[in-house]
Amino acid sequence: MSLLNKHQGALERLAERGRSRSLLKAHGCDFSSNDYLALTTAPELRLAAENALKRGVGMGAGGSRLLRGNDPEHEALEEEAAKLFGAERTLFFGGGYNANLAMFSTLPQNGDLVLHDSLIHASAHDGIKLGSAQSMDFRHNQVEDAQDRIRQWREQGGTGRIWLACESLYSMDGDQAPIKELVELADQHDAFLLVDEAHATGVLGEGGRGLAAEFEGRENVISLHTCGKALGASGALVCGPSVMIDYLINRARAFIYATAPSPLVAAIVRASLQLVQNQPQRRAQLADLVSHANAEMERLCGQKGSGTHILPFLIGDDKRTMRIAKALQETGYDIRGIRPPTVPRGTSRLRIALTLHASKADVSSMFDVLAEEIDLVPS
Question: Which PANTHER family does the record associate with it (predicted)?
Fold first, then answer.
């Protein structure tokens, strides 16, 4: 019996259920990336990288931040980002996954409760599993349900701190969290609010500072701004009170034992943050494209859009979703199908991401093709 049989069998069962994954090359018009402002190829960021190399910035850190990997570029980025986002301190991580892993596994303590939206990102779930706090979810975007869950937990003897957690813009549904109401709930219960701004940073809020921008700097609000989506680079910035940043530096294994992010990338992120502030026309252009796409999806395909740059097109069946996605890719539109466990069972969908790599004409022609494929591909 081969040592590989068990894993091969598991892969075959995934394929039978239409859930097998594979790596696909980027091809066709971009409707799948998170490069919302088209900054990954911006000449300004290329120039920033060239200038950083010329002034001696290293491509690699050579070690963890607590050893020899701490670089002036990391510190400059963190200082500038804190001023931009209105936070007391920030801490730069290699990516959003590591940052969420660090926050959720480290900050909530034994006896505390992490109360999270039911659609919170997988990285938050993984961090919670590594931590010592209890966890519970509340119905998506339902603040009253969160209130009920807190009451139930207290009635059952819960005495610790409560950590409310949400995304500001949900990556698979494209809808926004009720941030103001969640802040009020946190205040009411002396709780912390952890906000993942991954898909809002650079795009939404005043100056592209995210949907929780007006609450940054409060001692009970901690936010995560990823740098690999609209900012066009990589990494992530955790923003919050100085004591929380120091606690992560001292206790978060995902920070302590990880090689520091590239100083060159830190230099590029610094330039990207400035670019987002100096070129508001990019956000305006994307907002115009969003309005057009939402209207076209409803007009041509009969589904109402999310109103944001993330447009889920619900299909339901896993296999049909992937067949339609493949047909669109073959026609020249890079759209990916999303299936369980990333989304709940029975809600497989096309995740249509709007970026400045596509024009209004691209959007209209894509929805024309999608409308045809819906009729051609059987349920």
Answer: 8-AMINO-7-OXONONANOATE SYNTHASE (PTHR13693:SF100), CLASS II AMINOTRANSFERASE/8-AMINO-7-OXONONANOATE SYNTHASE (PTHR13693)
Q: pTM of whole model > 0.85?
A: yes
* Structure-block tokens of residue 18: 């239409």
So which residues are the catalytic ones?
A: 34, 121, 167, 171, 196, 199, 229
Q: Is the pLDDT of residue 18 over 90?
A: no
Q: Are strands 89-93 and 134-138 parallel, antiparallel or unpaired?
A: unpaired
**Preceding omega of 43 cis (within 30 degrees of 0):** no
Distance CA 154, CA 239 (A): 29
Residues 6+ apart with CB under 8 A from 193: 163, 164, 165, 166, 182, 183, 186, 215, 220, 221, 222
Q: Which of 368, 352, 370, 362 is nearest to 33 (CA)?
A: 352
The model's pLDDT over 114-126, given as tens digits with 9 standing for 90+, comes to 999 999 999 999 9
Three-state SS letters, the chain: CCCCHHHHHHHHHHHHCCCCCCCCCCCCEECCCCCCCCCCCCHHHHHHHHHHHHCCCCCCCCCEHHHHHCCHHHHHHHHHHHHHHCCCEEEEECCHHHHHHHHHHHCCCCCCEEEEECCCCHHHHHHHHHCCCEEEEECCCCHHHHHHHHHHHHHCCCCCCEEEEEECECCCCCCECCHHHHHHHHHHCCCEEEEECCCCCCCCCHHHCCCCHHHCCCCCEEEEEECCCCCCCCCEEEEECHHHHHHHHHHCHHHHCCECCCHHHHHHHHHHHHHHHHCHHHHHHHHHHHHHHHHHHHHHHCCCCCCCCEEEEEEECHHHHHHHHHHHHHHCEECEEECCCCCCCCCEEEEEECCCCCCHHHHHHHHHHHHHHHHHCCC
pLDDT tens by residue, 334-370: 999 998 888 988 999 999 999 999 999 999 999 999 9
